Amino acid sequence: MCGIIGYLGPKHPKDVLLSGLKNLEYRGYDSSGIALMNDESIQIIKSVGKISELEEKIKNEKLINSNIGIAHTRWATHGKPSEINAHPHSSGHITLVHNGIIENAIEIKNKLIKENIHFNSDTDSEVIASLINKYYNGNMEEAINKSIKELKGSYALLIMCDNEPNKLYAIRCESPLILGVGNKEYYVTSDIGAILNYTNKYVLLGANELVTIDKNGYKITKDNKKIVREINISNISNEDISLHGYEHYMMKEIMEEPVLVNNLIKKYANHLELLPDLKKYKHIHIVGCGSAFYVGMIGKNFFEEDGIDVSIDVASEYRYRNIKYEKSTLVILISQSGETADTIAAMRMANSKGIDTLAIVNTETSTIARESTYKVLIEAGKEIAVATTKAYILQVLILSLLSYKIKPDSNYMNDLLSLPQLLKVQLDKTGFHKKMADKVYRKKDVFFIGRRIDYAIALEGSLKLKEISYIHSEAYQAGELKHGTISLIDNKTVVFGIVTDEVTHDKTLSNLEEVIARGATPIYIGTDKLKYKNQIIIPKIHKKLQPLLVVPSLQLIAYYVAYKKGCSIDKPRNLAKSVTVE
Ligand code: F6R
């Protein structure tokens, strides 16, 4: 979940590292640090809080001359956010930064303590530094290779040794790490976005491939055997990481939705042959986490209508289920980052049983995109705000197109072509969404109710609101509320009623009346103009496209609520963009 970057080249590393950390901050932002190395020393500067605080601290320090450095932005796993627990960590000759989680860290630490090795922090990462230092006998490659054999878990490591002041080492397993190649300068980072200001050339690294970099170049080895890997060119542009005048990435990314939706429609509407054909599968399992899981719930509704048997699980549960796979099963993995640890594990479980896997994914270079049997890229560009918006919409669109391909419907295509324009008009209703946010931002409890597809939408609306505004919010199947939860409803509660599903329309409206009778303030979101004071009218469109017009409104309301509350919209507390640990 953390972000790491290393640099070796003619520049002083400070600027490269800080600029990289700012671009990586979405991966974790409770503390950060850098280490600079030269022939005489290694200088480490750390700070708790956002990168801006580290930057301030660095301004007040006299920095050593240096051409090699490593840096880290942290999302705490082992040990609370503090300067001691912040990276880089040192032990003896070794200084390193680590992204990932070492599952047997306590076991290794206890062994090392018995050997009189002393630890300063509570982190699993310091254990790795100590282990490498223990095995270091003048040969770093040997020490690193020996150490990783003892590690269980995930790691991307950037390592420096004070005895080898001209070299930078990097290695990964499970956690992402790429090598950026510039003009006689080299970058190693967990995310290409961190180095795009400097280079778009990169090399993908396989598990436990050790990169050794010095000013003459780099070499990649695995178990001491040389490996040759091609240099790729990234098509992510700096444009993707610029705010374009918006105050927050979340708003910028919501506003990109119509264009991105239009791009996918143009690509696939007349070329459905580019999408995999799911007709041949009798069973589909859909797996994802968080919003990606809620996308899957919408997909479940689509595919069931097409006559396919569908089950859906959050990845952290799916991976531990005892599944007896039937023949002709497809497992669909939904993931923006393609690096979510549980979703990767779910994919590998299915792959290992010979079951076809299909990734609906944004990041082309990611583990899930690389290891799944089939993949469809959602082409969202870089999504930087921690709360997903545009990726969610594009994932739903792909599932809708896949469903249409299974069971074409004459009413679908016209509506599909009108979607981008309708979406744009919906997003432009700024005053209207702000007005709804006014009803919510002082509340302590908000509910979202709906049935079938509207329930899946309610789940996403509720998650968006709670994660960025910190208002307690729950989504309920409208019919389930009176089996207990309705006792929470009183005149301080806001209830969003999502009512777009024709089959359950009247039932959900009755459920909305039930909460009104208990004093709640209702906000009706539906396709019919009704009598409610607070209502969001959504243009009616084909049912397999309808969520694409509802959810953007919920995204905007969540945004405006968080804005009014002065919350950290792009980087909500305790969260990180890509959950690379279990
Ligand atoms: C919520 C959100 C998360 C992600 C989840 C899965 O706004 O962004 O719930 O959807 O962590 O992430 P990916 O899609 O990268 O697997």
Brief summary of the model shown:
The chain is an alpha/beta fold and 582 residues long. The protein is built from 17 helices and 25 strands. The structure holds fructose -6-phosphate.
List keywords for this structure.
single chain, 582 residues, Glutamine Phosphoribosylpyrophosphate, subunit 1, domain 1, Rossmann fold, 8-stranded antiparallel beta sheet, 7-stranded antiparallel beta sheet, 17 helices, binds fructose -6-phosphate
Provide an overview of this structure.
The protein has 17 helices and 25 strands. The chain has 3 domains: 3-239, Aminohydrolase, N-terminal nucleophile (Ntn) domain (Glutamine Phosphoribosylpyrophosphate, subunit 1, domain 1, 4-Layer Sandwich), CATH 3.60.20.10; 243-408, Glucose-6-phosphate isomerase like protein, domain 1 (Rossmann fold, 3-Layer(aba) Sandwich), CATH 3.40.50; 428-574, Rossmann fold (3-Layer(aba) Sandwich), CATH 3.40.50. The longest helix is centred in the last third of the chain and has 18 residues, at 547-564. It is globular and about 75 Å long. Strands 3-2-4-1-10-9-11-15 form an 8-stranded antiparallel sheet, with helices on one face. Strands 5-6-7-8-12-13-14 form a 7-stranded antiparallel sheet. Strands 17-16-18-19-20 form a 5-stranded parallel sheet, sandwiched between helices.
